[in-house]
Amino acid sequence: MRENTYVRVCGHVRSMGGQRTIAAFRMSPIMDMNELTYHTLEVVHSHLMLNKLSGGSGGGTTYGNSMQTNSEQNFGESNGGGGVVSGLSSVQNQVHMLIRSNNTEQGANINDVCQQLRGVPEKAIRDAIEFLSSEGHIYSTIDEDHYKATDS
């Protein structure tokens, strides 16, 4: 990457021992400046929603669906509570829904996900986790075997 180039970064922020670290999985240049505008709108939307959820004055509009994006910038909708995410395969959706439904602080363990999806080969589950992580749908928490959904 050259200086003064807008880029899209996929990764996650971890907090260990009071120290925050950033792990970037992928970085690619932005070719369409509409993506930057979309990101700005998404940040404003998230800020308003967080204010509203915390009891602050986030405006009077009720938002039913939250914005999300993937690396191809296919604009989709989150189904609020637990529906399928468009653009994902059946296995990816099953893994995503299981990880999303886990309410523990450390997140869902890969071995637990494999046990719950007995008919699915472990390699397919691990491939789905790798894909979901690189696309920003999930992130690792305490180690590389525990994951939480970004929309939970």
Automatic annotation (TrEMBL):
The keyword rRNA-binding does not apply. PANTHER family: REPLICATION PROTEIN A-RELATED, REPLICATION PROTEIN A2. Signal peptide: none annotated. Residues 47-145 form the Replication protein A C-terminal domain. Keywords: DNA-binding, Nucleus. Pfam families: RPA_C (PF08784). The lineage of its organism: Eukaryota, Metazoa, Spiralia, Lophotrochozoa, Mollusca. Belongs to the replication factor A protein 2 family. GO terms for cellular component: chromosome, telomeric region; DNA replication factor A complex; site of double-strand break. It is found in: Nucleus. GO terms for molecular function: single-stranded DNA binding. Its main location: nucleus. It comes from Mytilus galloprovincialis. One of its GO terms (biological process) is nucleotide-excision repair. InterPro entries: NA-bd_OB-fold, RFA2-like, RPA_C, WH-like_DNA-bd_sf, WH_DNA-bd_sf. This is Replication factor A2.
